[in-house]
UniProtKB/TrEMBL annotation:
It catalyses: UDP-N-acetyl-alpha-D-muramate + NADP(+) = UDP-N-acetyl-3-O-(1-carboxyvinyl)-alpha-D-glucosamine + NADPH + H(+). Belongs to the MurB family. Its cofactor is FAD. GO terms for cellular component: cytosol. It is found in: Cytoplasm. Pfam families: FAD_binding_4, MurB_C. Cell wall formation. Its EC number is 1.3.1.98. It comes from Candidatus Roizmanbacteria bacterium RIFCSPLOWO2_01_FULL_44_13. Keywords: Cell cycle, Cell division, Cell shape, Cell wall biogenesis/degradation, Cytoplasm, FAD, Flavoprotein, NADP, Oxidoreductase, Peptidoglycan synthesis. It is an enzyme of class 1 (oxidoreductase). Its main location: cytoplasm. The active site is at C219 (proton donor), E299. This is UDP-N-acetylenolpyruvoylglucosamine reductase.
Length: 303
């Protein structure tokens, strides 16, 4: 455990899809289950806070430096636990890239993840966020049976799906700060051709409605609730709609701007400074509140 290969003052900007400039005080690249457990133990032993970085696609780190130990999750393993005529039970490690999981599922004929085609990040991040797709409404946690976690004392525990209390953009991990080691999913068998078509449909819709292939962290703010929508007599809960109606599409501060394609996406043109991002976020919050009386809440984790 003591010979954990920890780097100091590591530039982690390239691990963040929004590409903000950040250094990690201590950094460790975890490649196995044992690495993740050892990192947690190391952080406890050395009294360091620990931050687990998945694909870095749901983060807006506006600090120049992250204190404590930042662990990059590169634990990638996929195992078939049970294979029956109608379904399969697979164990997927938390550092496994979602794009790879979807590609593998489609090619093998495992249904369940195909509508998430185009979702960046890792399986662990997608469980933590219960990442979703809208057409049709699908959540990453839908087919989870159980999972293995590392708790706050660095003990491994097995929990079932109910433990996560999955909801829109929510799992209990956001409160407990436990770490997913593996998620065990039950997936129905399906024709790869049909899965491919469904995935292509989702990706096509994504590309038509969202900026694609540029530096962002996805939808920045959470959609408003049905109650708020009804009070405002709106036909949508979309945070992007509110930002658009507040006249903010294309609004730029420094190298950060509100996407003209989808107003809930904030883009870094390149080399954006964190203080400009913070100013742009404050502007968006302020203008939306002025126009609609609604305080937008972040979907992205702002640190
Ligand atoms: C272009 C683009 C499109 C996107 N589209 C969507 C979309 O359609 N739907 C959607 O819901 N989101 C979307 N997102 C947001 C983001 O991709 C998802 O939330 C994604 O699932 C986050 O995974 P990650 O591995 O990148 O997590 P990270 O951003 O690395 O981390 C997010 C949080 O999860 C925690 N975490 C990561 N791994 C673990 C683990 N193993 N155990 C416990 N906690 C962990 C981190 O500590 C952090 O608090 C999009 C983002 C981008 C950039």
């Amino acid at each position: 455990m003591t010979n954990l290969k920890v780097e100091k003052n590591k530039d982690i900007s390239n691990f963040l899809t929004l590409k903000t400039r950040v250094k990690a005080e201590y950094f460790f690249d975890a490649k196995t289950r044992q690495d993740l457990i050892a990192a947690k133990k190391y952080s406890l032993k050395n009294d360091l806070s620990m931050f687990l970085l998945g694909g870095g696609s749901n983060l807006a780190i506006t600090k120049d430096a992250l204190a404590g130990l930042t662990v990059k999750n590169d634990y990638r393993e996929l195992k078939v636990l049970e294979d029956s005529p109608d379904s399969v039970i697979v164990s997927v490690s938390s550092g496994y890239p979602v794009t790879l999981l979807i590609a593998k599922s489609i090619a093998t004929g495992w249904g369940g993840f195909e509508f998430h085609q185009g979702l960046p990040g890792t399986v662990g991040g997608a469980i933590y966020m219960n990442s979703k797709w809208t057409k049709p409404p699908t959540y990453f946690g839908d087919d989870l049976l159980y999972a293995y976690l590392i708790d706050e004392k660095a003990e491994v525990k097995k929990v079932d799906r109910e433990y996560f209390q999955f909801a829109y953009d929510y799992s209990i991990l956001q409160k407990t700060h436990e770490i997913v080691l593996e998620g065990i999913f039950q997936l129905g068998k399906a024709d790869p051709k049909i899965l491919r078509e469904k995935a292509a449909f989702a990706l096509d819709y994504r590309k038509k409605t969202q900026p694609y292939g540029i530096a962002s962290s996805g939808c920045f703010f959470r959609n408003i609730t049905e109650d708020q929508k009804n009070k405002l007599k709106l036909s949508t809960t979309s945070a992007g709609y509110l930002i658009d109606q507040a006249g903010l599409k294309g609004r730029t501060i420094g190298n950060f701007y509100v996407s003209p394609v989808h107003a809930n996406f904030i883009i870094n043109r390149g080399g954006g400074k964190s203080e400009d991002l913070v100013r742009l976020l404050n502007l968006i919050r302020g203008e939306v509140e002025k126009k609609f009386g609604v305080k937008l809440e972040e979907e992205v984790i702002v640190i």
